[in-house]
């Protein structure tokens, strides 16, 4: 951990409109009680390891510096469930985290059944899959882009706006270097009243002030068939200017049909037909910007392991130099822009 952080403010009052602002996984329908619809159970023989790990070639894992890449960097996951730290693909790469809950604001001060949960005691498929794409270990089937990094899992319970705010700020105070948010908050309306989750900026600005990079899934509300939510509507925290917003592309290089066409989308990463670690040592296949975002978070962890002097604003300003065709992430270009791959070396990269 690189920083000690400031003291977290505790016991905030619940926002009066929080009940009408719902949080959904970026791969799920827009109801917080719905399961993650774009994660399907699979055995390794169903998809074949190579077929579900195409991101390793697309993102040139072979070029990543570090032994192992991402060594010493910590990434928080902001999720509505914990991470299965005992999965073979995650063994030794997940430390105990934290659980926040809107309905139990005393959770940070008093031992309760909820506070006893530590981000690994209540594992969920989505959170476990996200973690595996970042820090998947060589001993497992899911290759992580930053196997030397460590995941600090934050379970935000019911996933209301206050939960996300508290979760991000808690992660910052825990000393993480990167926060990955594979969740989205959207505007909600009841009769003539509407509310948008703008208060989450308080948490992302807090991360910015403390030198922590925030990466978020852009959402799955593009204009294609089967996409969720109002087409191309704003999704938080991805729309915020201090957040790196990530869309998805397919194995053939096409922009995934449910990636929103919004100005805030900074970069596209692999996000379709990806092999994921699942709870209980199992595996799943996932698609969505939820699974593109952790690949960007992991790449930033790799860069920070080599360049710990870089701050969030410097990384965001460099993003245009990371892009290839159609906004897809060009990893050799990103490494060169960060000064961890010499420009002359990039010319000889296949």
TrEMBL record:
SUPFAM superfamilies membership: Subtilisin-like (SSF52743)
Keywords: Hydrolase, Protease, Serine protease, Signal
GO molecular function: serine-type endopeptidase activity
Superkingdom field: Bacteria
Annotated GO biological process: proteolysis
InterPro entries assigned to the protein according to its UniProt record, in alphabetical order: Peptidase_S8/S53_dom, Peptidase_S8/S53_dom_sf, Peptidase_S8_Ser-AS, Peptidase_S8_subtilisin-like
Signal peptide start-end: 1-18
Peptidase S8/S53 domain span: 71-319
TM segment ranges: none
Family the UniProt entry places it in: Belongs to the peptidase S8 family.
Name of this chain's protein: S8 family serine peptidase
Taxonomic source organism: Phytoactinopolyspora halotolerans
Lineage, top ranks: Bacteria, Bacillati, Actinomycetota, Actinomycetes, Jiangellales
